[in-house]
Write a structure and sequence with these properties.
The protein is of the alpha/beta class and 311 residues long. The chain is built from 16 helices and 7 strands. A hairpin with a 5-residue loop joins strand 1 (40-41) and strand 2 (47-48). It is globular.
């Protein structure tokens, strides 16, 4: 009877969030995308989790805190998760043990920069995972991911970080944002946006941040990646019937104007083209291209909010 009770659905999501240390947003994403747990439903459709579900979520949270990815561990057996937890505790590094689940954006950014300085990719991944658990996805984008990459860029420009530090941070952040982008995708009834960087633009974190922010605003994102010719971006947009296109241009490049001209010809006059990044002014100054200049994630949210009702 005790074993049956442990698998009985009886806890609403707010209780599970408090007991597991996960936010409701994270719980829903892990359930929807990865099947980490399958809660029961009440007669009114409300999620009801069991004690066994809570135990499993705690284990998954701890192995993710250790630097693993949710997609790799979500469906593992409880015994396997317990073994991983024991292994991680035995092998825990200082970068992992100094981080708490509670905290604000500044705390997490400081811990992340310390891990980057130590060339500790597992520690950096753990800090970012913990911030995702403690904060909402919007807070993670605004208070952790964006300022972290800005700080790292500034430190690198001043010579306080070496290229290897910047590459390590970029690689880990790319994985984290890629996971978020996959997890947060809304259903096919929502408007669609194409996100990429044009040819010659190899830095993709701005585009990934934009894609994640667009998902959170209820847009279905097709992410094409970096360094793609304008003609190819336009072909994808036409093929998919995209409602908007967003491009990240981090380095000034006169050829970007030609690429956007080709893109505009391919998609026509009515599809909004949004341009962000430090190198975007060279494109937006060409007024004939009919593009919208973005200045950060808040700007993107405002523009997408104005476009979405028109669908």
């Amino acid at each position: 009877m005790v074993e049956l009770d442990r698998h009985q659905g009886k806890h609403p999501i707010q209780v599970v969030a408090r007991r597991s240390g996960l936010t409701p947003d994270v719980l829903r994403a892990w359930e929807k995308r990865y099947g980490a747990v399958v809660p029961k439903r009440s007669s009114t459709g409300r999620r009801l989790y069991s004690d066994a579900d809570i135990d499993r979520l705690r284990l998954i949270r701890e192995v993710i805190d250790g630097g693993r990815r949710i997609g790799d561990v979500a469906k593992l057996a409880v015994a396997d998760l317990e073994a991983m937890v024991e292994e991680d505790r035995a092998q825990s590094s200082p970068a992992l043990t100094r981080v708490t689940v509670n905290g604000n954006g500044d705390d997490f950014v400081g811990e992340a920069i310390a891990a980057v300085r130590d060339f500790d990719s597992a520690g950096l991944r753990a800090v970012l995972n913990k911030s995702l658990i403690a904060l909402s996805p919007h807070q993670f984008i605004d208070d952790v991911a964006t300022p972290l990459m800005q700080h790292i860029g500034d430190l690198w420009a001043r010579g306080e970080l070496r290229p290897g530090h910047e590459h390590l941070a970029t690689d880990v952040m790319r994985q984290v944002l890629g996971d978020m982008l996959e997890t947060l995708q809304p259903d096919e009834s929502t408007p669609q946006i194409i996100i990429a960087t044009p040819s010659g633009q190899r830095h993709e974190l701005g585009a990934l941040l934009a894609g994640t922010a667009a998902c959170l605003e209820g847009w279905r994102v097709t992410y094409l990646g970096p360094d793609l010719p304008g003609a190819d971006i336009g072909e994808a947009a036409v093929s998919l019937g995209a409602d908007a296109i967003a491009l990240s241009i981090t380095a000034p490049d006169a050829s970007a104007v030609e690429q956007i001209e080709v893109l505009r010809q391919r998609v026509g006059r009515d599809v909004p083209i949004l341009i962000g990044g430090q190198g975007a002014d060279v494109v937006t100054e060409a007024v004939h291209l009919r593009v919208t200049r973005l200045r950060g994630v808040a700007s993107l949210r405002a523009v997408l909010g104005s476009l979405q009702p028109a669908r």
